Amino acid sequence: MKPRKTARSILLAAVLSGGLLAGTASAATTKVPRLIFPVVGPATYIDDFGDPRGSRSHEGNDIMAPKRALAVAAEAGTVKFWTTSRNAGCMLYLEGVSGTEYLYVHLNNDRTLGNDNTAGCKPGTSYAVGLRSGDRVEAGEPIGYIGDSGDADGIA
Question: Which of 36, 56, 85, 101 makes the best surface tag, with the fewest CB within 10 Å?
Answer without folding.
Answer: 56
